[in-house]
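STRUCTURE REQUEST FORM
Protein name: Group 1 truncated hemoglobin
Source organism: Thioclava nitratireducens
Requested output: structure tokens
Priority: standard
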Amino acid sequence: MEQTLYERLGGKPGIKALVDDVLEAHMVNPAISARFLPYRERPDDLNDAKAQLCAFFGAGSGGPEPYSGRDMVTAHRGMNISTSEYMAAIDDIMSVLAAHEVDETTRKDVLMIGYSLKGDITNQ
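Status: completed
Returned output:
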């Protein structure tokens, strides 16, 4: 029986580790760090963002976590995220997946999900 994307990402602990590292990568990426660095000074907001992202990725990858957060359009409305910023975020995600030695098929699956969300996130 084939594993779900959730299982291939390491379940809840694997997704948490990925989210931690992705947010850290965003904070040092010059193309998008300005959007993420303020979280360093607001640890409660950072922890909330991490929890929401873990739930979003968990639910979206076939895990049992419920996601009760906002949809992508609502969550990103007014942020005016450019395509280049979006691609910088996707690059960070892909780099983190590779650093965690996530297999190529799983990385491609995550990439396809990322691309499917682009229109809901950019230019809102």
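Reviewer notes: The mean pLDDT is 95. The two ends are 40 Å apart (CA to CA).
Form closed.
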